[in-house]
Design brief:
The longest helix has 10 residues. This protein is elongated. The protein has a seven-stranded antiparallel beta sheet with strand order 4-3-2-1-5-9-8, with no helix packed on it. It has one domain. By secondary structure, the protein is mainly beta. The chain has one helix and ten strands, in the order E-E-E-E-E-E-E-E-E-E-H.
Length: 162
């Protein structure tokens, strides 16, 4: 049984970056994970060295910004349900994202975020807990609730049956 592999760019706290493939979901063992690079070799990376892991659409030729994370903050309140987070990383970089409000936030290794710019090359980010200096919850965004019985009754009063 083969696990599906996802395209990723691993940015280290030293600003170096590596691109390759990670199994979905990837496992961290003894603080390390294996990245299958483009040459077909598995490179062991220490999770504490990683700034973030970007799940990308494709590998970019841009040497300075392969993740294409130009927009790092939401311009307005997100509409998708989840936790709106602001993170300050150990290298003083700041990032906002939307995390699912579920038990995945309790993972010791880190958590997944949806970036502010959904059209960028980066689709999801995994931020290791070891890279975080500060974490702030800006808002809890709830799913739109179904109409209540009182709202349905009120609509029927003003919309007579045909």
């Amino acid at each position: 049984m083969t696990a599906s592999r996802k395209k990723v760019i691993v940015r280290k706290l030293t600003q170096e970056w590596l691109c390759g493939y990670l199994p979905s979901p990837f496992a961290v063992e003894a603080g390390r994970f294996g990245l299958l690079d483009l040459d077909g070799k598995v490179t062991a990376i220490t999770l504490s060295d990683a700034k973030w892991i970007c799940y990308v659409r494709d590998f970019s030729a841009s040497a300075s910004d392969p993740e294409h994370l130009r927009i790092k903050a939401f311009l307005r309140r997100p509409r998708t349900p989840g936790l709106w987070l602001r993170i300050k990383l150990k290298d003083n970089d700041c990032l906002e994202g939307l995390a699912q409000n579920d038990v995945n936030l309790l993972d010791d290794n880190g958590f997944l975020l949806a970036p502010p710019d959904s059209r960028s090359n980066t689709q999801r980010l995994f931020v290791p807990r070891t890279a975080i200096a500060e974490l702030e919850i800006l808002a809890v965004i709830r799913a739109k609730a179904a109409p209540t019985a009182a709202q349905n009754l009120q609509e029927s009063l003003f919309n007579p049956p045909e």
